[in-house]
Specification:
The longest helix is centred in the C-terminal third of the chain and has 19 residues. The protein folds into two domains: about 220 residues, 3-Layer(aba) Sandwich (D-Maltodextrin-Binding Protein, domain 2), CATH 3.40.190; about 180 residues, Periplasmic binding protein-like II (D-Maltodextrin-Binding Protein, domain 2). Helix 15 packs across helix 16 and helix 16 crosses helix 17. It contains 20 helices and 16 strands. It is globular, with a radius of gyration of 23 Å. Helix content is about 40%, strand content about 15%. It has about 500 residues and is an alpha+beta fold. The strands form five sheets. Strands 4, 7, 8, 11, 12, 13 and 14 form a seven-stranded mixed beta sheet that branches.
Length: about 500
């Protein structure tokens, strides 16, 4: 019989992003938005008791009856297209001791964290890695080591060292990774072929610049050879990290320092500035702002030859294919290439943004939450494909007879438009595999990065993005910019208590 109701909140931002992708694309600059999908916090379920749930929660059944009803707050798009019901049926078939009550909710990360702090019983939560890790360090989320140990599995063996580094602090696992995100060069292959442009498998920044110039064709509507994000953390940090630069570092005593005065950083920032202001191969910062340039729209409408972006570009391009009446399929073939390298660096597919499932301290039944998370992420490939917004982090699909490329392919190649029509096989396996490949593991942005610095790095990145415009607009030179921004970052670290970490 039903003894307890567990409020299992799946406040998944990637679901909300998918909801946004199902709408007609706008022409505003996505780089100036806080995210691709803005959401409004809602009031958590009233029946999620604020009592200490752990003492009441039971985890076993002797008679096979449903003992727990998991209340799933799912995104509206998953409910409307039937994905939530599909996941529910699959899960309760595998774990009949649980039932799932699906509740439509568009609560965002901020609203959910507020609810957790207020004592709401929430059993699991999806967020960016830095949200989960910072919350774990602060006691908002539970360490999950004992659950993996109980399963008799090694976390690193399941997800790899990259995901381990972005899911732990001091050996404590605070999140189950759902996806990783890569940044690549997306280009109009049809246009490239017509112009006799060959995109090499490994290329330098200078070659990238020359290629961008070759794409320029103002008489035919191609004003800029390339268009990228003007947000530092979305694009350009990859190339500086590729040379071994990081925004923050820590000394032997645990003091955190800001690393702006670095030749590698100056090289990349100056190159980005010159690409627009000197070479005129990309919009200048002023043009980005004044013309509300959206890199994805520019590529879709053949007003540029290349963009640097993450995998969700594929989803946005689907929007342009099917959600703009009268447009239909893109009239060109899309190509994917690796990021260019600077001297001292290697070509790499920049990897970041591991999305994590965390279990809050207010969870009524951590075991139930853990089982659900592991099922939809690692046990059932169909559920994994539905829940992943990017690329699967799980490394053991092959041992289950599942090709991970099929899971990734399902994410990007199938699409339901705003009229309810299902489109399949949008992109080829070959193209999706190119998007999902990370050829040089040591080039991953956090590969050699101290996980304890994630929160400090994130705080400084926020200041970086706030102040990036003064250099990119030509208002100040690099040295002046460093002298101005460094104390701002140091103050942000001090105010947040992130200027020192415990090395014990």
């Amino acid at each position: 019989m039903k003894k307890r109701i567990i409020a299992l909140l799946l406040a998944v931002l990637m679901i909300l992003s998918m909801t946004a992708c199902g709408s007609k694309p706008d022409t505003t600059t996505d780089d100036n938005k806080a995210s691709d999908a803005e959401t409004t916090p809602e009031t958590p379920a009233e029946d999620a008791a604020a009592e200490d749930p752990k003492e009441d929660a039971e985890t076993t059944t002797a008679d096979g009856e449903v003992e727990y009803t998991i209340q799933w707050f799912a995104g509206s798009s998953m409910i409307e297209n039937g994905d939530a019901d599909f996941i529910r049926e699959k899960f309760i078939a595998a774990y009949p001791q649980y039932d799932i009550n699906i509740v439509e909710s568009d609560m965002d990360a901020s609203g959910t964290l507020t609810a957790i702090a207020g004592g709401e019983q929430i059993d699991c939560f999806w967020g960016d890695f830095y949200t989960i890790l910072e919350g774990g360090a602060g006691g908002t989320f539970l360490p999950l080591n004992e659950y993996f140990e109980k399963d008799g599995v090694d976390f690193t063996d399941l997800y790899g060292e990259f995901c381990y580094n972005t899911s732990t602090i001091d050996g404590q696992i605070y999140g189950v990774p759902q996806y990783y995100n890569t940044f690549k060069v997306f280009y109009n292959k049809t246009m490239a072929d017509e112009k006799g442009i060959t995109i090499p498998s490994e290329w330098t920044w200078d070659e990238f610049v020359e290629t961008a110039k070759k794409f320029e064709d103002p008489d035919n509507g191609v004003k800029y050879g390339a268009v990228m994000s003007i947000a530092w953390t979305q694009t350009w940090a990859a190339m500086a990290n590729n040379m071994g630069w990081y925004l923050t570092s820590v000394d032997d005593e645990g003091n955190v320092s800001v690393n702006l005065d670095d030749e590698r950083l100056e090289t990349v920032m100056q190159a980005v500035y010159d690409l627009g202001a000197v070479d005129h191969a990309i919009p200048t910062y002023t043009e980005y702002s004044a013309e509300s340039i959206n890199r994805r729209a520019e590529l879709a409408n053949q007003r540029t030859g290349m963009i640097i972006d993450g995998p969700f570009t594929f989803v946005w391009l689907k929007n342009y294919m099917f959600n703009d009446p009268g447009e239909g399929n893109l009239p060109f073939e899309v190509g994917v290439a690796e990021l260019p390298s600077f001297p001292g660096g290697e070509n790499c597919s920049y990897a970041t943004n591991v999305g994590l499932w965390g279990i809050p301290k207010t969870c009524g039944n951590p075991e139930a939450a853990y089982r659900f998370i592991r099922f939809i992420e690692n046990e059932d490939p169909d559920c994994a494909a539905l829940m992943s917004a990017y690329m699967s982090t799980y490394t053991k699909w092959e041992e289950q007879g599942v090709d991970v490329s099929d899971i990734n392919y399902a994410v990007f190649s199938n699409f339901t438009d705003i009229y309810g029509e299902k489109h399949t096989d949008i992109y080829s396996h070959e193209l999706v595999d190119a998007l999902c490949t990370i050829p040089h593991e040591f080039c991953d942005v956090y590969w050699n990065f101290n996980p304890n610095l994630y929160a400090s790095e994130s705080a400084c990145q926020a200041v970086f993005d706030e102040q990036f415009s003064t250099f990119m607009s030509g208002e100040v030179d690099f040295d002046t910019w460093v002298a101005t921004v460094t104390p701002l970052m140091e103050q942000r670290l001090a105010d947040s208590g992130l200027d020192h970490i415990n090395l014990d």
